[in-house]
Amino acid sequence: MEPPLPSVLPIVQAGAPVLRAPAAEVPPELIGTPEFRELTERMIATMRAAPGVGLAAPQIGVPLRLFVLEDREELMATLSAGERRERGREPFDVQIVVNPVLRLVGEARATYFEGCLSVEGYAALVERGLEVEVAGLDDTGAPLFIRAQGWKARILQHEHDHLNGTLYVDRMLTRSFATVEQAKALFAGKPIAEVRRILGV
Ligand code: ZN
d(Cα 122, Cα 88) in Å, to the nearest integer? Predict the structure, then answer.
């Protein structure tokens, strides 16, 4: 008998071609199959173990247009009320998003530190749309529509980028690139306007 597959998978790191190629649409006939359920369960388990707030299929080496996202109270426990407000960060339940189409809503933009499980150990400021709409399918193949602001909108843009072979480093303010330790030590608790002044960006 073969041993059961581990539910938590290694996360592919920057440099791997799978992170730089556009992913393929998930074939409709795959959605809802046991194979598909196993894939999404393993993606969620891998995201939670990291821990992270989103994971796209290419990050586990699967070149399909599919991502999962979730934000939990415990992941924002070290942020002050002001920092949560500034980021627009609120807990939300896990979602599976298949074959998404993303559209920015309005002109408002927000700039914050962002990291990626595939660029382990680093963070940088990235400007993103403040509000987005995402249309796609859920894990049963039913139509899914998400309208989100703040941190969830950022996660959706970041994960959607993964499906097009784009990493946050392609969009970051390059002079803000820092190790997570440095970013925490130097900028934790500071308003982003002050961080930008310090960095000159
Ligand atoms: Zn990422």
Answer: 22
Active-site choice (29, 159, 181, 194): 159
Tell me the backbone φ, ψ of residue 191, rounded to 5 degrees. Answer: -60, 150
Taking the centre of ligand 1 as the mean of its atom positions, its distance from the CA of residue 131, in whole angstroms, is 19
Phi, psi of 104 (to 5 degrees): -75, 140
Residue spans per domain, the chain:
17-109+129-164
Rounded Cα distance, 57 and 64, in Å: 6
What is the CA(2)–ligand 1 centre distance, in A? 32
Mean pLDDT is lowest, of 22-26, 48-52, 167-171, 186-190, for 186-190
> What's the CA-to-centroid distance between 115 and ligand 1, angstroms?
7
User: Is 74 among the residues known to form the active site?
Assistant: no
56 alpha carbon to ligand 1 midpoint, in Å? 7
> Among the residues of 88-191, which ranges form H helices?
150-162, 180-187
pTM of the model: 0.95
The hierarchical CATH code for the domain 17-109+129-164 is: 3.90.45.10
- pLDDT tens string 61-92: 999 999 999 999 999 998 888 889 888 999 99
